[in-house]
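Re: the 404-residue chain
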Amino acid sequence: MASGKFTFTPASATTFFTPSGVVLTIKSPYTTLAATTFTTTGTGTYAGLTLTAGDFVGIASGGRLFFEAISASGSVLAGFGQPSNITSTSGNTEALQNGGTFAAAAGSGNFAAISPRYTINNPGAQTGTFGLIWGAVVETALNGMAVNLIDVGTTTSTIFSGYTSKFKVDNSGNTGFAGTLYFNTAYSTSSMSAPANGIIRMANAAGNNFTRLIFGSNDTGAPGLVKSGTDLLLQLGDGSDGGRFLLPMGTGTGEAPAIGTANVNTTAVGNVGAGTDDLMTYSHPANSLSAVGKGVRITAWGTAANNANAKTVTLAYGATTLVSTALTISQAGTWSITAIVIATGGSTQEAFATLNQGGAATLVDVERTTPGETLTGAVTIKCTGTATTTNDIVQEGLVVEMLN
């Protein structure tokens, strides 16, 4: 058939078959075809084809149907739409349906239900934006209708029956998904999930561990939370020690570092016989005072027997005696020691300690020292008691707090 324009009025539906297998069915009332051309290669090209209500273009077995732009200058290259408003008040309506069954035998075939493919090759500078898939909804009057901009999932029947949503974005931008969010497309890196309402879980790819949550850059310029067994540690973004938890000072603008309790011991320990005995000890871990200004507060307390035996209580930080005081004898009483040690360098510290004794006669001893402990190693904090008879001196408690 030669190129040109023809008009006819069939009495009933008329069908044309092209060599490519495309079927063009024209039903009454008639449809006008303009510049219709059938090439010798079996490709059918139809320019200016207009279909009225009830007309359709079908595809015979093995055929394919393409919509292409005649010119690249138009604002809409190809489109689908309905001629009038969709006014159904019940049932289900699908404006454009694409479906079928993928039932390949054993092999390695791939299938894409929708496959937009474009090459971006701009010969000049551009300020525009290319969007592979864009969509928009004009919301004139919803009247209670829910609007999802995208909703994908699985079904046992159709999108209206047996459907389970897996990823959804509504018209407010709220986004929901079922499953686990991985931070790469191979599902082999850190992940986030919500195993129950009100619970957010972060894990590694295996789902059995978690290393560090960084608030900022992956270096010393940002703090991070680190999982250590059943505890959380505060470290810097690169995993090194540093950073502080700050708390507001009342309703003012000031902030103060949180004080953390490193050790609590309330198992009473007394001296044994004559001489000096260790009472309570605590090994302060290496690098606990890793920067100038970091410190430790030590609180110790106990009782003294009511007898005439000489009694001396000593608190030491490593090899340095912070305070050593002879208690008042021949009275039942209590004693307490409070000491603070502040790092002034990698192996230098500033410290003071106060011993108080209560009873019929009170006693106060205040001492300042400058320990020289190497802080890259563990430092032993220890109370000792020097006396004559067992339990002349009893230590009732020891608390060590970090001033970070």
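The first strand starts at residue 5 and ends at 6.
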